[in-house]
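@channel sequence for tomorrow's demo:
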Amino acid sequence: MEEISRDLLLKKLQHWIGTNIYVHIEVNPGGYFRNGKASLHQVHVKGEQSIRVFLELDEQASIIHVDHLTHMRLADDLVIVTAYDEHGRLARTLEVSSRPFPI
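structure tokens (generated this afternoon):
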């Protein structure tokens, strides 16, 4: 994982606008959502060192917002953005893919 580059992250996510994506969100402790499928309508990446990502889905019928993100990994068909707590443990993650995630 590397520190988030807003421009690289935004460009990669914008590549999927108008297509179906699969979403995985995990918030620790206590939250998990996997393989939500929707059409990506718009993307917003805000902030400087603590990044906020907004995904507008299905022509603005729903929005996913994850904040305090600090690290990313970009691949051809996958984006992972994460944040860690003060103890270095995974606090939240947002994964976006062009393919379903394994269960």
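heads up for whoever presents: The mean pLDDT is 92.
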